[in-house]
Amino acid sequence: MTTIQEFHKKSIENPDAFWGEEAKLIDWHKPFTQVLDFSRPPFAKWFVGGETNICYNAVDRHAEKRPNDRAMVFISTETDQEVVYSFAELKQEVMRMAAIMQSLGVGKGDRVLIYMPMIAEAMFAMLACTRIGAIHSVVFGGFASGSLATRIDDATPKLVVSSDAGMRAGKAVPYKGLLDEAIELAEHKPAKVLMIDRGLDKDFTKVAGRDVDYATLRTQFMDADVPVTWLESSDPSYILYTSGTTGKPKGVQRDTGGYAVALASTLKYIFCGGEGETFFATSDIGWVVGHSYIVYGPLIGGMCTIMYEGTPLRPDPGIWWQIVEKYKVNVMFSAPTAARVLKKHDTSYMHKYDLSALKHLFLAGEPLDQPTHEWIMTELGRPVYDNYWQTETGWPILGPMPGVEKTEIRYGTPNFPVYGYNLKIFREDGTVCEPDEKGIVGILPPLPPGCLTTVWGDDARFVSTYFTLFREPQVYSSFDWGIKDKDGYHYILGRTDDVINVAGHRLGTRANRRGHPGSFGDRRSGRRWCCRSTQGPDADGFRGGQERRQRRHAGTDRGAREGRDEAGRRQPRRDRPPEPGPLRHRSAEDPFRQTPPAFDPGARRRPRSGRSDDDRGSQGPRAVATRSGQRQGLIRTRRARRADIRLPPARVAGFFSSAPGVSVLSRCLVAALTPPDFCAGASPGLQARTTIPATSRTPPAAATSNWAPACSAIC
Predict the structure, then answer these.
(1) How far is residue 30 from each of residues 47, 132, 300, 329, 361, measured CA to CA in Å?
(2) Domain limits of the chain?
(3) Per-residue pLDDT tens for 346-366?
(4) Is 92-229 a domain of CATH 3.40.50.980?
(5) DSSP code of 291?
(6) Residues 148-165: pLDDT tens digits?
């Protein structure tokens, strides 16, 4: 039997033979003449000369063979809807949408911006674009007007497809007002706006001459027969924007043939899903997980895909498991946040349903801590896999490959480099790290099929952003620190840029390494982040000032040596060894048998590290302010998906009082004080400004209520 290492080695040493074989997983209208053209590094073209179409591979070829099999199930617990589409029915709906787009002047190469909730028409629109050769750009539904406007200007869409409103936790979130304001702010004006009226916002207004009604046009094209537009493999299929920490959003441009082949291969080797089975990803089409594993991946593999609008708790915490039972879900993909939410509720909601069809659960998008991983794997009685990837890559970089070899499940690691990725851990001088040595996670080009081919409209930015880490060798930078242990398992640590910009104030980050034996911190609960202002003489203000830090590093401060401050409070220490925790692994033979790892108490402790925000299938910002944090003189804010930011209240207040023109908070300071629908529905025109005295230890209640609109532009 082939091992993961042998399989990966083959993909790196002989990519032409490896990917030429994988290309047989999809249908080609015209065969390719060259597997890889890497004559202009770092730009790579895959399957040169071949012609194919993603919509054909996802819908048509299955509709021809299995027209009555389930293709997509749309479920909304917000509006109590449940609709099942066969492959034949899905094909017809896609052709109707494609005919509408063509009637509005959309053709090959034109951009279509999709600003939609999780409804079936959103999938129809995405597939219709790929069918006729248009390039879609999906923006997360409810995104604020300012952010939406920047994407409109960059993509210059001819058509916008939107809805009157989305639903969240039983409340309508109007979209039309946000869209109208975004178009008003944008320099580029789309020619048409196609509106899906759900009847949720009775008061939305139509712009004469620009807005058209989907239901009305649909009746005109009920019997439409729109042929597939065959595209060269390197033609772009879609643009997906990611801002990361670089400010101006980057339009990740994806190709056609390479993307289809990559997704088809992941269904075979990573997710182990087959024709006629069911895939349930709980993400959103606004994120890369939604593109790859709600819409395209499962359908290309001939699977039925679940499109779900709702939360994991409505109508009760058992709703996802009810769906698994009803539709015999075989593969499930979610986020650690969702697992942590479900962990707070009675497990009877899970155990009351028959989950025997479920093979395994994949979790990605943020750190997966050991308690959550252990809890959900024990309760499900199924393997639960962590995996790591980015918007830029489109599919996993690190992950398990049970379709190749079943390996031991270890907590705190997203496993091994996936085939096609020549991944290394680099020192800052460009040399490769030894095992258990921290370095920068990089990928030697060419990037495998399915990854971004460039930044939309900006080849120079593609090179300068991702491939200037070293002079030699040329390396794609993930902007993450990482470690590979002696067994080949990889651990993702903190962001390499280490800076978050908040309303003009630069915040440095210091991270705590997760889950790796011998590392600092609580290996049982994951990792925390601390932030410090990089401005002023006391940049480490919460630690007590320059003089105290010098004493602490010199070892002359008794409180520091004992890990306590002057008030006797316990403080995190960079050099305090971790307490040996019950870090357990799962054996490959029996993934539910726990085995303690070897622990060397004399091993050298590694410095704290962690990882920050990135673009791997975000589930949106979350933040909390804790009483305990205030007792310690801290406001504790949880950065989106992975970080705890700690700042003194006076310093936070100072951001508002001292920074001129402050009206927007970075995502890392978006607080749970904000109702979800209020934050999503706010616009720059409504942004409030507030001044909080720098002497205040806690923001006054009146001022707190004005934070929400200021957060909306970037949340």
Answers:
(1) 11, 17, 18, 35, 37
(2) 92-229, 498-595, 627-711
(3) 999 999 999 999 999 999 988
(4) yes
(5) I
(6) 999 999 999 999 999 999
